[in-house]
Amino acid sequence: MSTLLAAPLAWLLDRLFGEPRRFHPLVGFGTLAAALERALRRESDRNQALRIKGALAVLALLAPIAAAAQVLVSLPVVGAAIEVLLLYLALGARSLEEHGRAVALALAGDDIASARAKVGAIVSRDADGMNEGAIARATVESVLENGNDAVFAALFWFAIAGAPGVVLYRLSNTLDAMWGYRNARYVHFGWFSARLDDALNYVPARLTAIVYGVVGNFPRALACWRQQAPLWYSPNAGPVMAAGAGALGLKLGGDARYGGEWKRRPELGCGEAPRHTDIGRALALVRRASYLWIALAVGIQWGLAHA
Q1: Which of 304, 228, 297 has the alpha carbon at shortest distance from 265?
Q2: Strand partners for 261
Q3: Burial class (CB in 10 A: 0-12, 13-18, 19+), 55
Q4: Per-residue pLDDT for 3 more than 70?
Q5: What are the phi and psi torsion angles at 185 (to 5°)?
Q6: How far is CA 193 from CA 30, 62, 124, 174, 305, in A?
Q7: Is the pLDDT of residue 2 over 70?
Q8: Considering only 11-20, 194-203, 210-219, which range has the smallest mean pLDDT?
Q9: Could you tell me which of 290, 215, 205, 286 has the C-alpha nearest to residue 8?
């Protein structure tokens, strides 16, 4: 099987089956990471010690697994199938769609309590007390941002560096989701995981912003990206969400509550505030963009193979 077929096949597997319901490797990896954190951290650690320990933890977790991925895909006969499997496990397009649609259906049925519970499962902000508009906005933002994190960046790193690249990226992204917070507990221990995730997402995020514009409203996406993304607190989420909001003609961003405290956030995009029907529009944007990304991944691999 040609490696050029790996990305389309893995994407098809994700569309057909979604994420494994039980024994997902990322869940096991998260458990391992949490155990390593408990073993390394001490209450008496100074800030510099926490930074060093955090960096060592990331390297200790990622290097052996990425190396093992390289060994596995190099095996005769089964290596190509393992390559497809690893990329499939790294993708989360169907899961993203299922979560988004669940929120939209709850809102469509005026079940605000259920919608709050469901959006709380996919965002880090406080969901209690959200009204319909806040729930729809949070969901659209999550769809756009996770389109990059759970789909497009994984395809990018697979195209660039094969199975080891996508494994390294997806596990790094998982560690950032666990440790990459700027709070008292993780501002030092999680600094390396946050910076690594920023570096690995830098190019994919900007390609995602471009593709959102291509499959949506390109002039609006480009204008929102240029004017609003520099104001956002995340260097990669800013371009993705600003361009996605512009492509959809929606107004996102604005203040949100995290851990009981309100965080000031600039507005992104233009047009009307999102409603529950706009969640489906955001999912459709990500779906259209994924077709271009599959072609891009295949094109990059073909180019690298014939360089």
Answers
A1: 228
A2: 258
A3: middle
A4: no
A5: -75, -35
A6: 13, 11, 18, 9, 31
A7: no
A8: 11-20
A9: 290
CA distance 90 to 245: 25
pLDDT higher than threshold 90 for residue 298: no
Q: Where are the domains of the chain?
A: 3-305
What confidence score (pLDDT) does residue 114 get?
Answer: 97
Amino acid at 178: M
Bridge-based pairing of strands 251-253 and 267-269 is antiparallel
Element (H, E) at 201: helix 191-215
| Number of CB atoms found within 10 A of residue 262's CB | 11
Length of the chain: 307
Based on its alpha-carbon atoms, the radius of gyration of the chain, rounded to whole angstroms, reads 19
Task: Quote the pLDDT of residue 295.
Answer: 87
For strand 256-258 and strand 261-263, is the pairing parallel, antiparallel, or unpaired? antiparallel
- Determine the average pLDDT of the residues in 243-272: 94
How many Cβ atoms sit within 10 Å of the Cβ of residue 98? 13
Residue 82 has pLDDT above 50, yes or no: yes
Joined tokens for residue 299:
């094109």
User: Which residues, at least 6 apart from 133, have a Cβ–Cβ distance to it below 8 Å?
Assistant: 273, 274, 275
Q: What's the whole-model pTM score? A: 0.92
**Alpha-carbon gap, residue 222 to 44, rounded angstroms:** 48
